[in-house]
Design a protein that fits this description.
- There is one protein chain.
- By secondary structure, this protein is of the alpha/beta class.
- The chain contains twelve helices and 16 strands.
- Helix 3 packs parallel to helix 11, helix 6 packs across helix 7 and helix 10 runs parallel beside helix 11.
- Bound molecules: phosphoenolpyruvate (PEP) and manganese (II) ion.
- The site of manganese (II) ion has 5 residues, from loops.
Length: 361
């Protein structure tokens, strides 16, 4: 439920609303916007009587949110959320380009690649240091060394970095000694955006922990859709992060299992989910055409379709020598292709209507 206060209310009157919310067993979430002050009730509002608020003359109206997800819904917050990362604003109507390798393979590989991505128009550098691999025998990422490479690439290029936290377990150092810090702590300390992979979308305890740790530092979280999660489940996973303290969540679509997946395409690209998510929620939506297709021949077409459908950004796996990439080489594009995708995406960005982008609410 949301309580709207009349414009000319006093601090005392707001405090009374807050007090009544707390007395009803809910948590108040106050936001003062240009259209006045609204107070959300977080918790079980089923038994809360709206008249408790409507009887106060300084309350204009109350609204019950019909969706199971509350804080991330358009019903709750009509305006689209803009997320600032350094100089970049995600969700302002433009297309944010994130690019970089699937996995970081070392300093000599990452630095020239990061520079090439930047020249091709990337605004954020992606790269996995901790890799969630289906096989326990596959390359698991360089771990702490991978993070060190990303930090150095950021220092050289100025690009903010996004990387995945695979869990909150302690990990082994290169000498086989136990590290003091957990993977999550390590990633939170260095990443400008923390990525939650498709495999962790339903790790609810982990999502809560991520929310708390990233909120302390004001780090946004990019949440990937589970490979067979419904959109409602996806939004509820985002709700966990917002409810536990971090409102800066970026939704990322990356294809679904089923349909064409496995034969021609690694996953089924879920482009139709872009307008749905933008209608249902106020969070920015990024599309990952690399994992969605699993084939570099199709990355460009699907990326541009996602932009046309209203995506707030793209995340594209890029490699200087895709054939030799340590992971996901088949879906990595070269910086030349990335540059072409960016230039085409900018043209489409320029002709998208407000109705499609929904950047202004
Ligand atoms: C990735 O982006 O590196 C990744 C592992 O993607 P996903 O979680 O979508 O499989
Ligand atoms: Mn990958």
């Amino acid at each position: 439920m949301i309580v709207w206060l009349r414009k000319a209310h006093t601090e005392e009157q707001l405090a009374e609303v807050v007090r009544r919310i707390q007395a009803s067993g809910c948590r108040p979430d106050v936001s003062a916007g240009t259209e006045g002050t609204v107070v959300g009730l977080i918790g079980d509002t089923k038994r809360v009587d709206e008249n408790l608020f409507l009887e106060l003359p300084w309350v204009e109206r109350t609204i019950r949110i019909s969706r199971p997800y509350k804080l991330v819904s358009r019903e709750y917050q009509g305006a689209s959320r803009r997320i600032r990362v350094g100089e970049v604003v995600i969700g302002d109507g433009s297309v944010t380009i994130m690019a970089g390798p699937c996995s970081v393979e070392g300093m000599e590989m990452l630095i020239p690649l990061a520079e090439a991505c930047m020249e091709a128009g990337a605004q954020i550098l992606r790269g996995g240091a901790y890799k969630p691999r289906t096989s326990p025998y596959a390359f698991q990422g360089l771990g702490r060394e991978g993070i060190r490479c990303l930090v150095e690439a950021r220092r050289r290029t100025g690009l903010p970095i996004i990387t995945e936290a695979t869990g909150s377990h302690r990990h082994m150092g290169p000498d086989g000694q136990r590290e003091e810090r957990t993977v999550l702590e390590e990633v939170v300390e260095h990443a400008d955006i923390l990525q939650v992979g498709t495999r962790n979308m339903k790790a609810y305890g982990f999502l809560e922990e991520i929310a708390q740790r990233t909120a302390e530092r004001g780090t946004p979280v990019l949440l990937k859709r589970g490979e067979s999660a419904s959109l409602e489940e996806f939004l509820l996973a985002a709700e966990y992060i917002v409810l536990h303290g971090n409102p800066d969540v970026i939704l990322c679509l990356r294809g679904l299992r089923g349909g064409e997946s496995t034969r021609f395409l690694r996953y089924a690209p879920d482009i139709g989910a872009i307008p749905v998510l933008k209608n249902e929620s106020n969070l920015p939506v990024i599309f990952d055409p690399s994992h969605a297709t699993g084939d570099r021949r199709y990355v460009e077409a699907v990326a541009l379709a996602a932009v046309a459908a209203g995506a707030d950004g793209l995340m594209i796996e890029t490699h200087l020598d895709p054939e030799r990439a340590w992971s996901d080489g088949q879906e990595c594009v070269t910086p030349e292709t990335l540059a072409r995708i960016v230039s085409e995406a900018r043209k489409i960005e320029g002709v998208r209507s407000d109705a499609v982008v929904r950047a202004r609410g």
